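hey team, just a heads up i'm posting the complex here instead of the shared drive bc the drive is being weird again. everything in one block, sequence lines first with there labels, then the predicted structure for the whole assembly after. its two chains so it's a bit long, scroll down
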Amino acid sequence: MSRYLFDKSLREIQNDILRMGGLVEKAIYDSVDAFMNQDVTSAAGVIMGDERIDELFLEIEDKCIKLIATQQPIAKDLRIAVTGIKILTSLERMADHAVDIARATMCLSGHPMLVRPIQEIPRMARIARQMVKDGLDSYVHRDVEKAREMCSMDDQVDFIFSHVFRDTIISMGENPDVVTQGAYLLYVSRYIERIADHATNIGESVIYLVTGERRELN
Amino acid sequence: MPDRIKDLARSISWRPLASYFFMLFVFYVALRFYVGESVNAWVVVFISLPFAIVLYWILLIRIRGPLAEISEVTKEMARGSLDREIRIYSDDEIGDLAKNINLLGRQLKQTIGEITEEKDRMGAVLNSMADGVVAVDGDGRILLLNPAVVRALNISGESCKGKDIVGVIRHLEFEQSLKIALETQKELALVIKALTPDPMYYRVIFTPLKGAGKGGVVALLRDITERRELDQMRSEFIANVSHELRTPLTSIKGFLETLLDGALEERETAIRFLKIINAETDRMTRLIGDLFSLSEIESGKVVPDREEVSMARIVEKVFSIFSHSAGERGIELNCHVPAELPVIIGDEDMLTRVVINLVDNAIKYSPDNSRITVEAGCSGKNEVMVSVSDQGIGIPEENLPRVFERLYRVDRARSREYGGSGLGLAIVKHIVDVHGGRIEVTSRLGRGSRFTVYLPVKLK
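-- predicted structure starts here --
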């Protein structure tokens, strides 16, 4: 295979990853939206859509492995292929968390959400989603600066998470009726926090891809 | 030094010198041949050389100077600076050449100016367009993307030219449709949802690019969020109206069936049932009447009269209508109207309706033995204010912005029990709007509400 074809297949893999990234972004958006609006149909849609993401994941991963096996790339080319797999794994985990949020929505259907900290969820989800988006953008542009900036947003998510955690526990203590909802809320906020963590992993992969340095940014 | 010699060798200038010299030399040889006198060759050289140099000098000034300048100026033109012009030396071929080059430069400058202006104008139009425009080439790479798209889809639009579409717009449906449009080269439309904090809906139309950039596709994104919301409101309204009409009908039907099943024989029960049926029919009539007048005002079919109206008189009239029914429930109806209230221009019947609806609502939602105050007065220089405040159940803050919507109810069950059609405030709002006024509401849950209408005074 000539260098041209090799570049072409690398670009194809990158586009596939971005395509999957788009689906994952949508899954996160829809799942949080469904959770906030108690929209069971939308939640079911997220759960069904995950199959597609899983298929794509395996397909792209195969492509990466095939590329490594047949082309034996070195240096930056190798880093591109390896980070491709790493980013894919992170994206797939995020999609799983989106499904978890959708499941929580299904379980909670019919119970109005009365726990106060729920108001923080959309804000937290917005930051997490922005992180995923920025992570993928930094991957497209090979933008180390953007990747670093994105990783620093994780602190905000962690901060909100700790608040939600504390407030929910207080609410549950005050009113035993909201324990079920509170427990689900804790799960959901935890999932969003994990999504943000996976986003920082993408950022780290991008930095590794461009500079070859390994940095712990979480 | 060698460079200079090389330049000199390259230059055309030595050639005329040599040829002049040669010419003179031949002339001498010919002379000698004919005259037959012996002249020393060196002498001839010394004599002909100055002539040759003078001739050469003239040629140098006439040709080489202008040529050098032309070459200089054209070089600058090639670099893009079109401001310098060649000074024209002579009226010969070189002069013509210089003139033509000057003309060429001027034309180029004008054309480039026009093209730049056109491009700037197109750029300005694209940048300030509310609709998003994305153009891609046959391979799905971005040719152009305007800021509206960046805003609409919440993407980072920096240096996206030449990038694959997935690298910039990660939206699967969008991309798939784009692919189909690229392959089929046919127009295609779809609705996409943008993942912005408040979900927005866009209608995307893909059109094949014609002319330059053939094989590509241009996508136009139009915001249809509002239209979707309107559609939703309309279908909600229809659902609400059918619900409002069905409720009394169900009960009428129920009582009628019971009557037919034998309740008609028991006179007392039958009368009680018939009274309920009558009340339900009244409610339906009222609802349909309200709907009718609302649609009339909304559609602008009923043009409000433009006569002088005294709000003080209207308030007094309404006061007398309601004082009896309010008194029955022990509600104290207060009325504060200053003696000197400016007249306004409007439709007396409609404005009476406004005050009636507001006072009627206040009575409906007030507990027995409470107080309702109707106040009129001047607000600012050119507005008349009428306010109705009660000590009723109040309206939750989050519902306040919606109370003027048609058939909107804070508490469905309760307000039906009070016999409202759900259209009263919508009618009030429309009447106030057609009179160029405005209405405000403040409320505290459990403490009461206050509706204030401001109407413009007749301008002198």
